[in-house]
Amino acid sequence: MKIVFRYLAMQDVVDFALATLKARSPVGSGADRHPGLYRDSHTVFLNGQLTSGGDVSAFKVGDQINISNPVPWARKIELVRVPGHVYEETAQIVQGRFGNRAAVKFTFMPVRFGGVAAYAAFSRRVRPGRKLSEKARRDWLVRQPALEIKAR
Question: Which residue in 50, 36, 64 sits closest to 113, CA to CA?
Fold first, then answer.
């Protein structure tokens, strides 16, 4: 008789990723109206659905976990902030630690709630050098930096 045990505890991967994101997040200064809001807004999704408090205990083989941030300035922090990119470098750190159990990559994902949804609905901003339909423009505006985590 052969016994096979598959260890799929992804919660520790998510917990480490969240802790790393929070540690690397800018907090703001005393003049900031919302100091720490970006740091405290990293959000976990399991198969595209928002989780409660980052709980991924329902994870099964083939599922996908994403972590993103719904504040409107998350993309600007990722693309403009010096030094380093919060999500991109966190993906490398988490991959380095849990690469034998999980495939972790940096990507952008649509986040259609919170401040970013309101921003996309009312912003007149357009993508440089492109003509976009209203739907495509809104889709572009809600794409936020994210970590994508899948079991190996």
Answer: 50
Q: What token pair was written down for 141?
A: 């505006």
Query: Which range of residues forms the domain containing residue 144?
Result: 11-151
Token output for 35: 């100091």
Contact 83, 74 (CB under 8 A): no
> Does residue 5 form part of some domain?
no
106-118 burial: b if 16+ Cβ within 10 Å, else e: bebbbbeebbbbe
Classify residue 54: in a domain, yes or no: yes
Question: Measured between alpha carbons, how far is 105 from 88 in angstroms, rounded to an integer?
Answer: 8
User: So what's the pLDDT on residue 123?
Assistant: 55
The share of the chain scoring above pLDDT 90, in percent, equals: 47
Structurally, how many domains does the chain consist of? 1
- Report the relative pairing of strands 49-50 and 43-46 from DSSP bridges: antiparallel
Residue 4 domain-assigned (yes or no) = no
In sequence order, what are the residues at sequence separation of 6 or more whose Cβ sits closer than 8 angstroms to the Cβ of residue 36? 27, 28
CA distance 4 to 67: 30
**Model pTM?**
0.80
Examine residue 3 and state whether it is found in any structural domain, yes or no: no
